[in-house]
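Budget justification aside, the reviewers requested a transparent look at the raw inputs and outputs of the sequence design task funded under Objective 1. We therefore reproduce one unedited record. The lines immediately below are the structure tokens for a 287-residue chain.
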């Protein structure tokens, strides 16, 4: 069995981004495990801007491979890229967000709508009489991502589906990613719970701690160092973990099963939603 299988891995640059670094750890783990079967990975990274993404798209379209692992961050551009890539008739696995209506493409990741729905349920458990909920959007230019919008949609849907949960009042605030200096006390006046639909819950937590504001529940996503710090301090109440390492591993595993073993594979792998609280967070062992 000397045939080589080239898999293109098309992801955002990960140097300073723990979430994407974890994806790479999972991908590398699969690469090592399957290398004896002739699997070779070729990486195409792009910066978090559309220009860089479009440059990378050209390279990926020109590159000859057997399978593609792709994280579609920029929605419109990714849809266009996939439409073009389909002409090559090469299997595609998407991780992190699923933007395709094409049943041929595989997806490994969370059900974003469901994860927002879960966040709504967690907030409803946590709240007794105080019902002021703030949805705090801390965005890069890229948060037109479908994941982000689906989470918010899922969050509201939970409350629509549970009419007995009356008197909940919702407000939304959007700030740009650069951070904490854009927050002010007025934003949190009368607020009892904050939902941050991405990995930046720590920015809200840091502000509340610095200003000694207590009794506000925060729910967010992803086990970033800063998020864990505020979870352990009791400032963040819940984090929904997307298990990025598992996503990366399963993405490569899917291509391996489909192309090397020629197995029939299910195209949608939803990673179970994991609710992390201070009491059930156990850090991974240091290698």
């Amino acid at each position: 069995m000397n045939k080589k299988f080239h898999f293109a891995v098309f992801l955002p640059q990960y140097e300073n981004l723990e979430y994407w670094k974890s994806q790479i750890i999972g991908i590398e783990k699969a690469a090592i495990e399957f290398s004896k079967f002739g699997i070779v990975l070729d990486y195409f990274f792009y910066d978090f801007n559309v220009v860089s993404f479009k440059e990378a798209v050209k390279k990926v379209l020109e590159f000859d491979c057997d399978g593609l692992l792709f994280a579609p961050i920029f929605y419109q551009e990714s849809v266009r890229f996939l439409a073009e890539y389909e002409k090559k008739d090469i299997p595609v696995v998407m991780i992190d967000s699923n933007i395709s209506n094409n049943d041929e493409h595989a997806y490994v990741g969370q059900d974003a709508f469901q994860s927002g729905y879960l966040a709504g349920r967690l907030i409803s458990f946590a709240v007794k009489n105080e019902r002021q909920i703030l949805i705090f959007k801390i965005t890069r230019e890229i948060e037109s991502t479908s994941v982000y919008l689906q989470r918010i949609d899922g969050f509201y849907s939970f409350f629509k589906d549970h009419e007995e949960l009356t008197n909940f009042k919702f407000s939304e605030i959007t700030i740009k990613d650069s951070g904490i200096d854009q927050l002010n006390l007025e934003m949190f006046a009368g607020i009892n719970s904050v939902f941050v639909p991405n990995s930046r819950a720590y920015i809200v937590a840091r502000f509340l701690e610095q200003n000694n504001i207590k009794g506000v529940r925060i729910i967010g996503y992803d086990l970033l160092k800063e998020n864990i710090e505020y979870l352990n301090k009791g400032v963040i109440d819940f984090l929904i973990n997307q298990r990025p390492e598992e996503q990366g591993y399963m993405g490569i595993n899917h291509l391996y099963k489909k192309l090397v073993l020629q197995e029939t594979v299910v195209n949608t792998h939803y990673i179970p939603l994991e609710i992390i609280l201070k009491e059930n967070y156990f850090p991974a062992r240091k290698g």
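The mean pLDDT is 89. The longest strand covers residues 5-12. Computational costs for records of this kind are itemized in the attached budget.
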